[in-house]
Amino acid sequence: MTDLRADSLPPQGAPVRLWGRALRSRNLVVGALLTLVFVLAAVLSFLWTPYEVTGLDIANKIKPPSWRNPLGTDHFGRDILSMIMVGARVSIAVAVVAVGIGMIFGVPLGLLAAARKGSLLDEVIMRANDLVFAFPSLVIAILITATFGPSAVNAIIAIGIFNIPVFARLTRSGALTLWQRDYILAARVAGKGAARISVEHILPNVTNLLIVQGTIQFSLGILAEAGLSYVGLGAQPPTPSWGRMLAESQTMISFAPHMALFPGLAILLTVLGLNLMGDGLRDLFDPKLRGRT
Amino acid sequence: MMTNKPFALGLAGAFALTATLAVAQQSDMTIGQQLEPPHLDPTSAAAGAIDSVLYSNVFEGLTRFGPDGSVGPGLAREWEISDDGLTYTFHLAEGVKFHDGTTMDSEDVKFSLDRARAEDSVNAQKALFSGIESVEATDPATVTVTLKNPDGNFLFNLAWGDAVIVAPESIENIKTTPIGTGAFMFDNWVQGDRIELTKNPEYWGEPAMLDAVTFKFISDPTAAFAAMMAEDLDVFPAFPAPENLPQFDADPRFKVLVGSTEGETILAINNKLPPLDDVRVRQAIAHAVNRHEIIDGAQFGYGTPIGTHFAPHHPDYVDLTEMSQHDPEKARTLLEEAGVSLPLQLKMTLPPPSYARRGGEIIAAQLRQVGIEAEIENVEWAQWLEATFRGYDYGLTVISHTEPLDINIYARPDYYFQYDNAEFQKLMEEVGVESDPDKRSEMFRQAQTTIAEDYVNAYLFQLPLLTVAKTGVEGLWENAPTQAADMTAVHWAE
């Protein structure tokens, strides 16, 4: 294949070209690496953490970073590195499930609305989405968790609900342009029903859009989880969570900055990584948009 | 910035004038407080924040608490007690006027006490007045109070913020415009922000040394720290973040006062919830708890360990901490004896103060060592009062009981820890009518031992009063025998 120029590659060579482009995209590589680090830390935390995160060691409280505790200890003498690793697990779990909820409900709704464009059903679905959109998501998430009690599960549900309209709208708008295509017309002529067309032809072609948006929503989910735990409505102690680590370290920031710095950096780097990755993926899938922000 | 006086004087105009005045005068003070009062009537609500602002400053009672917790004369300058201990004759101070100009006399005292003990009274501490048979205004300067039974605590009861003297003329708007007899007059309340008091120029006693006092409400510990550091506040009694005290201590601009409160901080146990109704399980919890770790971890070392529900600075206090020494081995044995299947799941509700949130997390880790899984639920005050305090929907909770001499709450079977011991209830009834001090002391010691032996709750530590003040502030209460920020003797050093 070396004698072929890149743009003359046959269509079946597309995946190869995609990988090559992906590796050359700095955003994507850096973003993916950052994300990978935190995913690996979270996975590793199931098997091993430097210290037990539920065991307190008051005698060793508020120690700055050292060989013993690379990121120092918190006000209960817990190892901050271990807590960030387990906290990554919570953050990622909340974000994954929340994005999952958004996709599972949002995508079928979007496909349905597109397939029945202009019908009453379309109107109902999309106006209901607008209704959810109209409220600031974090405020409603606080309302939900405050009403049903603070817990990681309620945080997931609260964040997940606000992902539904995002995916529903995206899917609908993507699907609407596809419905105009000739191959869809061909499929209809061949006698395929709207449901089957949606699943077999529309869905595979909006996947790129969904992946890009999913990455962005994932980072927003992590931020929302951190925000909810910061105000005490996320995962409850003793489960470590980045947002609560920040909140608890707040009064000690002037004499123990490491306690706020590391969970803060963890949130920053994960969100940055996911956003870079999202940007990179968008560039990759939709070259027309490259260079735009 | 404003220390450069000649320069400030050199500037023309109003700015220079105000700047110089601010430097020269220093006759006002801004006090930081975490909780804002819901309203301003100390005689109809339990909220301690009301007393913190108004006790002794705006409202006065017949007797009053001194900074050391002793009970001294207030509006009643002296009194006689009949030999049978039933009749108290109070002689009121002369020439006392309410802030609205009306005279304070025996009729106002009768009105206040009758109102507090009336059938439809909403006084939060009605029990304080339940022993009163009648109140007579003998003449304008004399009040005679007759009791149903002798009560050694009566003068103490009258010193409470719930027993202050109010006037029938101003009672209607007391919740927004409190009119009292104190050395400060209520001036302004900007809800959500501050309450302003000004000096009462016609005060009957020793006049206040400050011209104006502002109470500023800052609930967030971080904001409190920042406001104090920025010198927006002059004093913060009951500073909420003990971890910041070393910084204030090291800063020459500030001083830190470490005193005691009446707050017994306990791990309250729901005595009716199985298996917590078994004394062995409660004893196991008490032995699983390590007080020193809690004081160190949650309070950064500030706090005195207690072994029963009594203030360690009280002369009748008995040190019973030995009965519940940290002994996880013993705790496990006791749980086994009680036949509890481990891990035992218990719900632990934690109200907002840091002693509860942090203390609870430490206790949960300690309980886990003996096989008890305390499921932490962080709640707001309203939720805590609703579900835990009134709804009994909890297994464990961490809370500080800040009323003075409040061991009698254990005689109330419907109180939230639901401790029902007829013998103890009888003992409290007896102590209520006993006026011989020695016998009373003996009874209080007995009561402390009883609740410690029954392991009603796990007793943690006495809540300290941590006050941060600017270096020049003098005359502050170092301890909190009652919830009050008495500003009447506070002043700036020369």
Automatic annotation (TrEMBL), chain A:
PANTHER family: OLIGOPEPTIDE TRANSPORT SYSTEM PERMEASE PROTEIN APPC (PTHR43386), PEPTIDE ABC TRANSPORTER PERMEASE PROTEIN (PTHR43386:SF25)
Membrane-spanning intervals of the chain: 27-48, 90-112, 124-146, 152-171, 259-278
Keywords (A to Z) from UniProt: Cell membrane, Membrane, Transmembrane, Transmembrane helix, Transport
Membrane topology classification: Multi-pass membrane protein
Subcellular location: Cell membrane
A GO CC term attached to the entry: plasma membrane
Family the UniProt entry places it in: Belongs to the binding-protein-dependent transport system permease family.
Domain named ABC transmembrane type-1: residues: 88-278
UniProt keyword Transferase present: no
Chief place where the protein resides: membrane
UniProt GO BP: transmembrane transport
Protein name (Swiss-Prot/TrEMBL): Peptide/opine/nickel uptake family ABC transporter, permease protein
Superkingdom classification of source: Bacteria
Organism field: Pseudooceanicola batsensis (strain ATCC BAA-863 / DSM 15984 / KCTC 12145 / HTCC2597)
TrEMBL record, chain B:
GO CC aspect terms: ATP-binding cassette (ABC) transporter complex; outer membrane-bounded periplasmic space
Annotated signal peptide: 1-24
Main localization category: periplasm
Highest taxon above the source species: Bacteria
UniProt cross-references to CDD domains, sorted A to Z: PBP2_NikA_DppA_OppA_like_6
Subcellular location as annotated: Periplasm
UniProt entry tagged with the keyword Translocase: no
InterPro entries reported in the protein's UniProt record: Peptide/Ni-bd, SBP_5, SBP_5_dom
GO molecular function: peptide transmembrane transporter activity
GO biological process: peptide transport
Keyword field: Signal
Ranges for domain Solute-binding protein family: 71-391
Family: Belongs to the bacterial solute-binding protein 5 family.
Name this polypeptide is given: Peptide/opine/nickel uptake family ABC transporter, periplasmic substrate-binding protein
